[in-house]
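Reopening this one. Same input as before:
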Amino acid sequence: MPQPAAARETASVHHLPNALPEHPDNPGVPFDPEPVAGIRVNLSAVERRAATLPGRRTVKKEWQAAWLVRAIECIDLTTLSGDDTEGRVERLCAKARKPLRDDLKEALGLGNRRITVGAVCVYHRFVATAKRALEGSDIPVAAVSTAFPAGLAPFETRLREIEASVADGADEIDTVITREHVLKGDWKALYDEVRAFKDACGPAYMKTILGTGDLKTLRNVGRASMVAMMAGSDFIKTSTGKEGVNATIPVALVMLRAIRAYREMTGHVVGFKPAGGISTAKDVMTYEFLMKEELGNAWLQPGLFRIGASSLLADIERQLEHYVTGRYASFDHHAMA
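Same output, byte for byte:
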């Protein structure tokens, strides 16, 4: 069995074949501690790669606009606040249907192209509301679940929450792991937990949130990623957005290398979702560049790459308007919802 190379620095980027399904294809595999234990992370190499990536990869003008339009299509447009209301969710869904103004689409030469975000992400309470608001759009509704964000409710309660969201029509479920399993190195317990979540999701895609800011080391991130994929995760996701440290480029690099190693080991395809703290167009393009370098162009599609964000869309619109008009609009000119 090949040893996963979660963060091995290489002289040339190894690309997987471009013939990929449009969506994840991961039934999971039986738990095997060997590839988990085999994961190693060269911290200095990861940090060096992360620091040099933005300077090595830059795009301008129409190429930048193209990357930003693709980023819009990969956004999980999210509202996860204690003061959420049905009205806010309905406005968010309206924005999800039409994330870019018609005049900007026309100026970009995209007037006939249907552009929507990748999904709308809400608490369970608002799944039915979002489904009604998005009816006929084919935009998925994602529900955060399993006692998001801490994941410390009783196990049966977490399973019932998944089932309730699926019953209300959720197309995707964002689950959170018990971080203690990772911190104690109890990989079988983590596998069993994620496998139970997968079974409860039924036909819905499952994104497994690792809460990487709580996992202490990049080696833990790599090993948790591998276990979550073995257990059947359709996506692995960095963060809830509620941790002290959320998505970072070093964490993303380790998780992408784990996705690559898992596919080489099993043949199964898993998606990736960075979330938390990605609020500017410059930030999101760095993640897109990393996806391209590590997994290839085929992964840069909404079925395999999502970005958890709320305020990001407004900055992308500002950048696209600047490209079209040469002027920056104020943020309130591009309200999220």
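So the earlier flakiness isn't reproducible anymore. For the record, The chain has one domain: 33-334.
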